């Protein structure tokens, strides 16, 4: 059952507009405000055990898999992720169900009162407190939390989890996290807590050294992909897992792409560690949870004839993973053509992002997500003039998908990527629904 909601005087549209207004505070890395706000509402994040998942890429998929397995085991599970694709409420779920609109309004009003008069939380701080409060009042058995940005100063980092995972390390959000792999790894390693075991996914040696040094300083046991646990097989449709104490064969997961094998292994390692602390997850639940997991916007097919795929890749490491998936598609359909629709935020690196993708695609369309901080198609073309001179510019996402569809054969592939915001816009178009005005 969903939590009971009290009568509130604030409408949901007004609530969303208030949350949108918090973006004027920008991104402030630090934990003082979120700790103070949570203390004023009774520290709800201390009322349930937590699994905490960070990393540059893969953390959302890993969180979704872990939550699905826990739910299949009969646990009441809170899942907090970001960003959302279409509806703000996607960020906060209990047992897979989005937080009700009335609940958002009620909790936002109570948190506004708690923050007055001296706290000025950012959007993400406010949303994190909202999630923690909802989970507490819904009496979840366990919460799975995805880190928003970085780790050390991310608002979610006020928790002391049963176990943590850091999936990958790559260049992203350099303005906040640093311009080197080592600097970014240092920020991501900030979620490692004293004595709390940490699962490390696929990363280069320099990032791993940073992680292991932090873990050693915190006396936190480290479990490393391909050393202590691993996935087996070539596809999530039929794969296996060899872990610290558990081993499974013939696992099935609907999330597509070979990269999901690493995420699956990290999720299963987390579940192993949670099981050892008393959050039991039997093999039947592992199998059922993986079989039932859903995670939108990652190598997701949303249309056929031609195939329309969306993928929220927005940094070079994620682009390389997407390139592998597109190359696999082309090998299976050598006569098919690939059209790539790309829109990116202004703080991203389109040349590095497109480097692994351009050799695979036949047509490149540059467009803009409907957000002020998004690059226009013309801005992207100017940055890519020498490496993609034939790129076409279409001002809006709707016009871009219409152009691509008109020129595609039924055997072709249209892939939309470069931004989760753009992916959400395209998915909303295909569903025939409107977007939440708050998508930062």
From TrEMBL:
SUPFAM superfamilies for the chain: MurD-like peptide ligases, catalytic domain, MurD-like peptide ligases, peptide-binding domain
Name of this protein: Dihydrofolate synthase/folylpolyglutamate synthase
Catalysis: reaction(s): 7,8-dihydropteroate + L-glutamate + ATP = 7,8-dihydrofolate + ADP + phosphate + H(+); (6R)-5,10-methylenetetrahydrofolyl-(gamma-L-Glu)(n) + L-glutamate + ATP = (6R)-5,10-methylenetetrahydrofolyl-(gamma-L-Glu)(n+1) + ADP + phosphate + H(+); (6S)-5,6,7,8-tetrahydrofolyl-(gamma-L-Glu)(n) + L-glutamate + ATP = (6S)-5,6,7,8-tetrahydrofolyl-(gamma-L-Glu)(n+1) + ADP + phosphate + H(+); 10-formyltetrahydrofolyl-(gamma-L-Glu)(n) + L-glutamate + ATP = 10-formyltetrahydrofolyl-(gamma-L-Glu)(n+1) + ADP + phosphate + H(+)
Source organism of this protein record: Nitrospira defluvii
Mur ligase central domain segment(s): 53-270
Main enzyme class: ligase
Associated pathway: Cofactor biosynthesis; tetrahydrofolate biosynthesis; 7,8-dihydrofolate from 2-amino-4-hydroxy-6-hydroxymethyl-7,8-dihydropteridine diphosphate and 4-aminobenzoate: step 2/2; Cofactor biosynthesis; tetrahydrofolylpolyglutamate biosynthesis
PANTHER family from the UniProt entry: DIHYDROFOLATE SYNTHETASE-RELATED, FOLYLPOLYGLUTAMATE SYNTHASE-RELATED
